[in-house]
Amino acid sequence: MNAGEKIVAASVANNGHPFSGGSDFFQGGGFLLHARNFRILDINAGGLRIDGRSREEIVGRTHWEVWPDTEQAELGELMKRVMTSREAGSMEVRYARPDGRLGVFDINIYPVAEGIVVFYSDITQRNAVEQALAESEERLRLATEHAEIGFWDVDPVNDILIWPPRVKAMFGISPDVPVSMLDFYNGLHPDDQEKTSEAYAGAADPARRAIYDVEYRTIGKEDGRLRWVAAKGRGVFDDAGRCIRVVGTAIDITRRKEAEQALASQLQLTKAITDNATSALFIMDDKQQCTFMNPAAEKLTGYRLDDVKGRPLHDAIHHTHPDGTPYPRSECPIDRALPENNQEQGEEVFVHKDGRFYTVAFTASPLREKGETRGTVIEVRDITREKKAEQELRESEDRFRTMANNIPQLAWMTDATGWIFWYNRRWYDYTGTTLEEMQGWGWQKVHHPAHMQRVTDRFKLHLETGAEGWEDNFPLRSKDGEYRWFLSRAYPIRDDKGDIIRWFGTNTDITEQREIEAELRRANADLEQFAYSASHDLQEPLRSVSIYSELLDKRYRDRLDGQALEFLDFLRSGAGRMEKLIHDLLSYSQVLKIEVPDEEADAGEALNTSLANLSEAIATTNAKVTSDALPRLRVHRLHLNQLFQNLIGNAIKYRRPDVAPLVHVSAERERDGWVFSVSDNGIGIDTQYKERIFGLFKRLHTGDEYSGTGIGLAICQRIVERYHGRIWVESPRGQGSTFRFTLPA
Amino acid sequence: MTTGTSHLQILLAEDNAADIMLVREALKEQHLDCTLHVISDGAEAIAFLERLDRDPKAHGLDLLLLDMHLPKCDGEDILKRLRSTELNAQTPVIVMTASASPRDRVTAEKHAAMHYFNKPSDLSEFMKLGLLVREILTNKPASTDRKRGSAA
């Protein structure tokens, strides 16, 4: 083969033969069928003859195992390209023949459903028609074996076209219908006619001898269907340089074209998904090397795919434990997924390109294709922040528990249904119980039988209504069997949606407080009893003193001298003061006996009653009492009365000498009640006594200056405090005084 | 039995000598012709009422002036006993008290004491007791005694 010999071999395979040692030449063509992982599924007799090894040594292994030096060579690259691109390819491989001459292999590779097929034939000696015919025979046979490939044969000299049924079908022609070259040209899609005819002409042209390698569309002669065909071929020339045959193959690639389109959109979709996935995605091949990383994976690891290629992914991103010791790949669960053909999940610590460690959650799944395990898909999520949040939550819970265990209260937590799942240490210390006994509704065991039902019912009702805070008082049994009283409060804890997920409760020991309160109640009762007795037992003898001194005065006035009459006067005024004192003391003690009324009282009316009671004092001092409109409020009328009467009475009593008293009463609304003011133009009160004046029996003046019992303001304070209000006085120097007090609306 | 104000039988249950004196003064001021029995002990007052009830010749009282706070038995005990006697179940009662507490008044009303006198600290006010007594005795229905039926 002279033309081939002229070509200077740019790259000559060392061992001549593209697949084997090249020790043996073959007469027919070679044929190899590869799976997608380049495992050899079939080899024909010609191929075995060329290689010299047995079928068993070749079928079932990968191409690279059988012919290791082809993988990185031009041939290997082409095979891979056809495998992935699904586009047919061809090349010539030149080699040194044992006799020193240059040999040429013609190699044609086609994608097929299984993977690819490789046809190869030595074209060094292809100068004889016989040889071409022999090859043609062989190809025809192969084409029939592998139905997708049709072999065509043109004898341009005699204008004969040989099409097997397969090729006829590609042109929509029934198997028995005779065909000519006209059928070929007419069957081409108008858009592909020129290019295809030209390519064919090039192959048949002795001057060009081009490789015929085209893809074209056909319009079925009988069925009008559109089909895609990939055809390859070459001219066969005799020694005179005349084209005697044009032979080649044709494959119906319609399905492939459709599949390609579908694949293209599938790939686009997949790319869109992986590009936008927040999880890092990796694909490792069967050598645990990374063949794919999505953008999230690049961001996560700090590496690009090129950086991690050529070595196991583990060695790039997972090589070291956080403590600095090496992490052998044999121990890595991610790398176990493939060999054990098992999905692995877990948490691992990876090493970033910049050297820092980060915790990830991973799922490594073996990648199967047609039942064969081909690699590993790894999905990875950075959980460093989750880990940190988890840690912080743990710490926060620890802090909470430390706090909860050290507060003086008993504390507990329930779920949304009121089922208690936690108590603080003080609860156990106090009750001497365990969580097992107490959890859920177990707390009922330490409740007093007389209170348990009430407390349970109220708590359940509160849970049902979902109201805010819950509060109750009840006795709880201590480990010594003693019952102490607790004020229990619980607050709901809500989630983001506002639903109650927990209740947090505390129990405060109020036994002592209750004892103090009981004592206070007793003391108040004693005071009342005292006041009652005072009103009778003290008043009774006093009454005798008053009446008899009066009687004495009436009946014996004529017989008494001046001094005796003066003594009698002292006696009578003393008895009068004493009587007033007893009266006021009684009023003071009675303040708490009056219940807070359900109805509102009119403060204006109460003021009028007070003014009527004070009418004598008002008249004698020429006092002027004015007021703004006063509100209605839920305070007992008698209390309002006492307040006004005492304060206005004081305002008149503590007037400036020779100045007619002016008193003004007003009320202003504040947040949850009213502020009343009683202002006067009187003598005022020295700042240092502002607190003292509200004390019982506290007086600033002698009875000679201003008479009084020292109980009036104490009564006022007691009334105001009865309604949880307060009373105070403002007295800027020389401007009289203003008493203010607050009462609920 | 005579009617009018002569020979009126009044029981004063009072332990305060000063008040006994004042009651006498008040009655004297009204020139009431009466016999005033004074008893200053609760138990004695009850004994007196029971003695009257046992004595077939005894007349019913025309009025009981009762201080609610007596030694041994208090006013309520006396009122209760009084209302359960045969002779004096209908006897008018003036309850006298020095206390400002409404408690005594409530107790008194529970036992049908229609008249209530709050002992004042003022002489002229005290003397008004006499007027009250006169009013009650003048308006009271026919005298209460066992012979009422036959003597009518």
Task: Provide the gyration radius of chain B in Å.
Answer: 15 Å
Total number of strands of chain A: 27
Question: What overall geometry of chain B do the principal axes of the alpha carbons give?
Answer: globular
What is the spatial order of strands in the main beta sheet of chain A? 2-1-5-4-3
Mean of residue pLDDT of chain B?
81
Question: Which strands sit side by side, in order, in the main sheet of chain B?
Answer: 2-1-3-4-5
**What summary fits the major beta sheet of chain B?**
5 strands, parallel
| Residues in helix, % of chain A | 25-40%
Global morphology of chain A: rod-shaped
Oligomeric grouping of the chains:
heterodimer
- State the helical fraction of chain B: 40-55%
If helices are DSSP runs of H or I spanning 4 or more residues, what is the number of helices of chain A? Answer: 24
Q: Given the helix and strand composition of chain A, which structural class is it?
A: alpha+beta
Main sheet: strands, sense, barrel of chain A: 5 strands, antiparallel
**Strand element count of chain B:** 5
- In terms of DSSP E residues, the strand content of chain B is 15-25%
Secondary-structure map:
The complex is a heterodimer of chains A (745) and B (152).
Chain A: H1 2-6, E1 30-35, E2 40-43, H2 45-51, H3 55-58, H4 63-66, H5 74-85, E3 89-96, E4 102-111, E5 115-122, H6 129-145, E6 149-155, E7 160-162, H7 165-170, H8 181-187, H9 190-204, E8 212-219, E9 226-237, E10 243-252, H10 254-276, E11 280-285, E12 290-293, H11 295-301, H12 305-308, H13 313-317, H14 333-340, E13 344-351, E14 357-369, E15 372-382, H15 384-406, E16 410-415, E17 420-423, H16 425-431, H17 435-438, H18 449-465, E18 470-477, E19 483-494, E20 500-509, H19 511-556, H20 562-590, E21 601-602, H21 603-613, H22 615-621, E22 624-627, E23 632-633, H23 637-653, E24 662-670, E25 673-680, H24 712-722, E26 727-730, E27 738-744
Helix pairs in contact in A: 19-20, 20-24, 21-23, 23-24
Chain B: E1 8-13, H1 17-29, E2 34-39, H2 42-54, E3 63-67, H3 75-84, E4 93-97, H4 102-110, E5 115-118, H5 123-139, H6 148-151
Parallel strand pairs in B: 1-2, 1-3, 3-4, 4-5
